[in-house]
Every structure is written in C-alpha cells, then in structure tokens.
Amino acid sequence: MPNGSRRLVSIVIGAATEQVRTQESLKILNYGFQFFDTLRLYDKGQVLATPDIYKGKSGTVKIGVQNETFVTVPKGTGGRLKPVLERQELLIAPIAAGQQVGTVKLMDGNNKVGEFPVVALEEVPEAGFFGRLWDTIRLWFKRK
What we know:
Elements: H1 18-35, E1 36-42, E2 47-49, E3 63-64, E4 69-74, E5 81-87, E6 100-108, E7 111-120, H2 129-143
C-alpha cells in the first residue's frame, strides 16, 4: 500500500450462520482499526547516514532504506519507539547500489518491534591503484 493506508483481513471459521460470521468479522476489524496505528518510519530512498568507505572513488556513501517503511503498533506506543542503526563497521568498495550494509532495529525499550534492511543508496566503484593503496595503509593503522 503505497500511501501507508491499512488493509485488514479477518477470517472467521465455525460460525453457525452467515450473519454470525459477518458480526464476528466486523468485531475483529473494528478492534484492529480502533486499537492499532500504522506509522510511516522512512520515505523511499531516505538517507539515514553517510559513513566513510575505503578503497572507493568516493570517501563516503549514502545509506538508507530502499522503500517506504511502515510499522503497525498498538495505539499510543509510537512515541516510545526508537530506531537503532546497526551497520557494517568497515565499508570497502566496490559497493553496489542496493547492497545491504546494515539494519535498523525499531526498539520499544528492550523489545525489538521491527527490523528493516539498510542499503547503499548509491554505487561506489573501486578507486584506482594509488587510492586503494593509500586506504590499505590507512586501514592497517585503523585496525591496530
């Protein structure tokens, strides 16, 4: 659903009549709409961070989410949600656009509510010989 609207589906099995099935289905649907909210977390292509990248033609890469990201949570809990970005510590070129480089974990206190992939939003090709050599030397010192 591109605009973030919700669609609920109910299935009622074992009802005595069609009227009872309809009434029970309406109760379930009303409960879902009344007690849950759907929140937009991120827009398509939204940049979450711009970390350094080694051995690439560029020194940084934009990372974020590829698609609009939504989450459905109990009403009133949206304000407690905190996104936690976990990404690869060292990014080394070449990096393809759309390549997963981490995740966003949506936390409510200590409880994980959702997890979404974080990808490179742009391609970073490998640098030339001297650029790769320089970054190799930088990485030696970084790891020690």
